[in-house]
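Interim report, section 4.2 (structural modelling).
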Amino acid sequence: MARLYGGIEAGGTKFVCAVGSGPDDIEAEVQFPTTEPEETIGRVVEFVKQYRSELAAIGIASFGPVDPDPGSPTYGFITTTPKPGWANTDLAGEIGRALDLPVGFDTDVNGAALGEYRWGAAQGLDTFLYLTIGTGIGGGGMVGGQLMHGLVHPEMGHIRLPRDATDRGADDKPFPGICPFHGDCLEGLACGPALEARWGQSPETLPPDHRAWPLEAHHLALALVNFVCTLSPQRILMGGGVMKQRQLFPLIRRQVLELLNGYVQAPEILDDIDHYIVPPGLGSRAGVLGAIALAERNLEGY
Amino acid sequence: MARLYGGIEAGGTKFVCAVGSGPDDIEAEVQFPTTEPEETIGRVVEFVKQYRSELAAIGIASFGPVDPDPGSPTYGFITTTPKPGWANTDLAGEIGRALDLPVGFDTDVNGAALGEYRWGAAQGLDTFLYLTIGTGIGGGGMVGGQLMHGLVHPEMGHIRLPRDATDRGADDKPFPGICPFHGDCLEGLACGPALEARWGQSPETLPPDHRAWPLEAHHLALALVNFVCTLSPQRILMGGGVMKQRQLFPLIRRQVLELLNGYVQAPEILDDIDHYIVPPGLGSRAGVLGAIALAERNLEGY
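Predicted structure of the assembly:
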């Protein structure tokens, strides 16, 4: 029988908790809204405790910013989040102590990336990216078989991109973007709320042939080109609410090829772009399954 | 007594070969122009052979593109270079067999990065970048303690950047850049030949207060911001001929802070940018010392 793990996808809006060993073996699952830390952590512990005797470890994939450095005194903390009450919360420590189990801990995107590595669209790779395009834009993944960490967690959403001079609004001005730090960085141009600000309606309600989508694909393709030139991933996974617009994938792939213009001589890109830029294999399950994978990886050290 | 290694810095213009164990212990060194592969490799072997009995291993830091994947059938090859005669040259294999010594092999930038990690400005770090701004723009470094590799070697020089609308030439048009693939990508805007094309004179002859330098710093700062947001390095080392213009460093640092605008909450950046963006500690010795470090790392597996 496979070892069982508790997986906790800690999101800013909701928490998803599951007990299992992988996508085909989930014994129980629950979700609840993210309220204040004490109450929310209490519900996590209450749920997981029922299965305590069967569990080998727990994993937590958390919204952030978090401290994922095991050598740091604030390892496992949610650090400077503006979310009320959650700054400086010792999420991994409190849950681990209450349950007396080892904890694997990382960011939500790195968790999802690890889930995809273990059971999804990144199996067998050692250098790949997982991007999520939704309320914000975040990124994670692996380089050389290790989850990406650095000085802080690299989030990828705030890179700067060239603007197309023909890309102007009704007022003949370029869209200024919505990022409070940078205006028209990637996130400021291409996250869900940026689309809503620009087009005056929720992006889910824009028809698939709306001109918003080729432009969105252009911005995302520019970002992907920069990531390819910087990290040379073996594959790029794109998830999140905006990427449910499946018409974006062929548009992005074509523009990535055009923008690279033959510079990267890799058959994986030149001949097989359909398998190079892909949706997550686990779909919306990547988060909680990623948390289970974090538990397993931490315990087994793979 | 420290183990001795042979280090070979294989450049497109010249080869530098040294025998030693580190920056304070170089027993012999030679350099010669890069001619055709047979002759050039012959000179390498002839030089190193004199010290053969004292050597534990050799290291090669090579111009590229190269294949640095030990699992690949073309590991150690220079692959698709346009340099006449050098495409598909089994550089590591030929030298290693002729000398019957183990070979550590990587790109020139990763070699220099490793030299800086071992003895220079990246000691004690596990995630950092080494950029070279010269005839071209290249990058390498470490992520999580491993030299950066991926689908192909990520070279970093070809990322796309925003252009400043006020940045226009005498003809009131934006400088188109010189990259044959992308026009105004980072390399197309900011490498040495791009500066020469734009200002009509060799960059070494431009005075330190020429308006070329704030603009060069702006382009490089935009690139650094993208690398910081993508990889979150603990430090960025900048070498190469263009960076001998030391007035660039304070300009770049200031613009990086302005462009990040407080987004990355790391004291290493916010409070200590002078030690975050730095020249290589080994200066122009990083290349050949990096080759010695590749020999050592390959043998000792650190």
